Amino acid sequence: MFWTQTIRVASFVVLFICSIYSWQANGQAGSNADQSAGAYSLQLPVDEVVLTFHAADVHGLSINDLKLGEIKLFDKGIAPRRIVAFDSLIDRPVRAGILLDTSESMQQTLSESKSIAERYAQRLFRQKSDQAFIMDFGYSSEIAQSFTSDPSLLSQSIRNVKPGKMNPLGGTAMFDTIFRACFYGFGKVDSTATGNFILLFSDGQDNSSHTSLEEALGACQRSNTVIYAFRVGPDLGRYSTGPKLLADLASKTGGRVFPADDTEDAIWSDLKTIESEMRNQYRLVYNPANLRHDGSFHEIELQPPDRVDKVEVRSGYYAPVQ
Fold this sequence. Notes:
There is one protein chain. This protein is about 20% helix and about 25% strand. It has a six-stranded mixed beta sheet, sandwiched between helices. Strands 1, 2, 4, 11 and 13 form a five-stranded antiparallel beta sheet that branches. The protein has a three-stranded antiparallel beta sheet with strand order 3-12-14. It contains six helices and 14 strands. The chain has helices spanning about 110-125, 150-160, 175-185, 215-220, 240-250, 265-280, and strands at about 15, 50-55, 70-75, 80-90, 95-100, 130-135, 140-150, 195-200, 225-230, 255-260, 280-285, 295-305, 310, 315-320.
């Protein structure tokens, strides 16, 4: 039997296409942000759910030949009323948001964060198909570079990020920054057209946000955005909430947490893992059996066949509200 192995979903990528939001103030997206890959464009009724996920074998290699009959899906414990579409997305374009924490606790390690971010921009970013933006944050946040396909602009913006610039009052508003990136950044574009992710560099501390963890996660899930975090900064011990917050943000959006102080080879391997997971995905569109427009959270369980060792997929989604 294929289903002797059951993977309880740690996280999954779901999107309700309800509305399109605008990128605000100094973060207005350039014209390139609207250039999505038409081959992946998908228009959906509000009661259809888009689930995207990545499957890998025991060696960590992508599995790109799954069939719909090999997969079982449960939405709030109930099988979908109807499967609308299922397809494999191979070597797809990506949109990335690079978020750099420049608060007081990060000033000694900001150079590590910038080095990893620039490595991604220079070596993995594809100018012909990809888009990315840069944000730096502390007590407040700014868009240092709006969506662009030019890796040289990304690298220059990363190099220009300065410690403490966004800390007029001290403190860190990580959740506010993530919400802004997902709601106003990824929320503006067709989120089904690309693999969308945040590359977050932080120690995970948040003491100044007006947005809650749940609100930040909701914005990410609605905009089909995965969070990959590189944990940087000093080890503050078992009483620090930072590591758990980063773990929650990553796992509940379908991402991972990596150490930023690892070897160069290990960090390169981590970046390649992110690229593989975002460029090679499955998309499953379905109608839930019991969907009410009440804003409630729907937990998802995805059961793959035995040949799949690991699935990267979100924990659920928020129902639309009318």
